[in-house]
């Protein structure tokens, strides 16, 4: 009885997997059939029926490979590929279409059917859905490619170079004085910061100036709120009537720095999220609310240009300099902790925050794994962020109009004092 039950379950599962293989083929076939819906009957090489059957055939070939012969899958795959090649070759002189996208989609459909039966249903489904999305967005993908500039392509390749090429080559072990440095982790942090800056660059580029101060500042905070502060301060001198909107933009960019800090800690040491949540969230909310109040009072003002973007979203030289800065901060953090205790960490956070919050945040989060207590790290991060915002408030006051400085300084002061009190109290 148990053998019959086990056999029934096995057959039932196989039937389900073959059904999924058929449905995945139908999914891709629907997209392919919709694209060729205007063609007459017989002109389409592969529509919904063909793709559905090819998906089912892929599942059957995987099943035969496990039950009959291991040659079943490769032989049937070659048969499908050969039949498709003959059909596309015969159709090519009439259609003058030399694209092989449809052929690749058909062969992938066969493979998805096999994966659904022999490997994993979820993996096959995810791959089929992604394939259907890619096939369906031909115009959008080509449009983005046409808008891509050469220096942006160069930046993307550099990001791949420092991540998938260089990162795996670095040793993942502690070295240096006091075993304070780990080359792999330092470079991985560099990649993390570079990737966020890369995403922030394209968010600004694709958003365009028509989104106004709010959208621009929100995403500029992912890459460099300091650069945006400098740009908006100078812009306020040229267009004094826009000072309130520019102040709102600076506050939004500075507020966006705090979610970025939380992201760093989430990746490096998730245990810091809970003690950081209240002070960091409060500081961000205070800046956002102040910016929203200013914007609502002056939202009818004309839109301003987005900050000027660098010619290269990802300079490899700057990434290397960040890695050096990160290593120096980690060494100083180790030595100051030994010499001065927690006071040394706070001094390091304050001085490092003048230049960059990301580097000191990543360093302290790394050291919190054992060298420094989490509550000390939390207060150090808040100190660094507060000092950094003080510097930006000084930029707004010194380089911008008086109105810009007044609208930026007060929310900044309230935000940093509240954050420091909460971090100290917790």
TrEMBL record:
InterPro entries: DUF4010, MgtC_SapB_SrpB_YhiD_N. The chain crosses the membrane at residues 15-34, 46-65, 71-90, 102-135, 186-206, 212-233, 245-266, 272-295, 316-337, 343-365, 377-396, 408-425. Residues 191-400 form the DUF4010 domain. The keyword Transmembrane applies. It holds the Pfam family MgtC. Residues 18-142 form the MgtC/SapB/SrpB/YhiD N-terminal domain. Keywords: Membrane, Transmembrane, Transmembrane helix. The keyword Protein biosynthesis does not apply. This is Uncharacterized membrane protein (DUF4010 family). It comes from Halomonas organivorans. The lineage of its organism: Bacteria, Pseudomonadati, Pseudomonadota, Gammaproteobacteria, Oceanospirillales.
